[in-house]
């Protein structure tokens, strides 16, 4: 699974990198070295404008943890932070979003934990690793998004009535990531961003063919400070080499 990641790029940098056509400069998210489920995260997606019918690429903040439109509570999102690539096109919670509502979730890298057995002098624990592209480029994680109507809010035009949530698609881990954890997030290569984001592109076989291993497998996995274990901790010190933050 992918349960934590790092996202520190400025909105303007993401706008330039992903050729975003529309975003609200008044919407700001702090850089995060410990993005956790239910956090608000940056996403890149494409929507059809109601007035013109034009498809525009947008930078939007979404809540991490997908809530299907038919869910009774927002709380289900905390359990739906990942969608398995093996079943994403068929599973009821994800299949409509996979067909029509796909997004990219920019990340510097992601965390996974490797079990460490107990010794005579130490307890069993899990060692966190930061996994990122060797070249330091942004990872465009493959995501889905969905709209959920809060029944507790009376008016449809009340901004609080609607939540937009997302999930990250995962697969079996390979290379450096596979030495740490059996699952890893998928990514979309820059040449395929437009095809992935296009809401009119609904051929499931072609869409699945766009899903790729991040950085084409050229990933670096580095043991980092156990301070990342707590969602309350944040900051660049979380990427310190293991031992520095224990």
Description:
The protein is mostly beta strands and 246 residues long. The chain has a single domain (4-239), classed as hypothetical protein yedk fold (Alpha-Beta Complex). 11% of the residues lie in helices and 35% in strands. It has five helices and 14 strands. It has helices at 11-17, 95-100, 175-178, 193-197, 204-209; strands at 5-7, 32-35, 40-48, 55-64, 82-84, 102-107, 109-116, 125-133, 139-149, 162-172, 183-185, 187-188, 211-212, 219-223. Strands 2-1-7-8-14 form a five-stranded antiparallel β-sheet. A five-stranded mixed β-barrel has the order 3-4-10-9-6. A hairpin with a 6-residue loop joins strand 3 (40-48) and strand 4. The longest helix is centred in the first third of the chain and has 7 residues, at 11-17. The chain is globular and about 65 Å long. It starts with a strand and ends in a 23-residue tail after the last strand. The model has no long low-confidence stretch (mean pLDDT 94).
């Amino acid at each position: 699974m992918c349960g934590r990641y790092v996202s520190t790029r400025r909105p303007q940098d993401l706008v330039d990198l992903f050729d975003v056509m529309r975003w609200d400069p008044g919407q700001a998210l702090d850089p995060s070295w410990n993005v956790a489920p239910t956090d608000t995260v940056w996403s890149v997606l494409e929507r059809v404008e109601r007035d013109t019918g034009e498809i525009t690429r947008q930078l939007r903040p979404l809540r991490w943890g997908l809530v299907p439109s038919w869910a009774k509570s927002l709380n289900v999102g905390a359990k739906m932070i990942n969608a398995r690539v093996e079943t994403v096109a068929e599973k009821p919670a994800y299949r409509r979003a996979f067909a029509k509502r796909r997004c990219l979730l920019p990340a510097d890298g992601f965390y996974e934990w490797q079990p460490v057995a107990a010794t005579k002098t130490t307890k069993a624990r899990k060692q966190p690793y930061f996994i990122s592209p060797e070249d330091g480029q942004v990872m465009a994680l493959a995501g889905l998004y969905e709209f959920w109507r809060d029944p507790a809010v009376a008016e449809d035009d009340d901004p609080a009535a609607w939540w937009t949530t997302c999930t990250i698609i995962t697969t079996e881990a390979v290379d450096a990531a596979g030495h740490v954890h059996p699952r890893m997030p998928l990514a979309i290569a820059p040449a395929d961003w437009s095809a992935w984001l296009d809401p009119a592109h609904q051929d499931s076989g072609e869409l699945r063919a766009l899903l790729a291993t991040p950085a084409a497998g050229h990933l670096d996995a580095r043991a980092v400070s156990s301070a990342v274990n707590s969602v309350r901790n944040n900051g660049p010190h979380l990427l310190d080499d293991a031992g520095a933050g224990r």
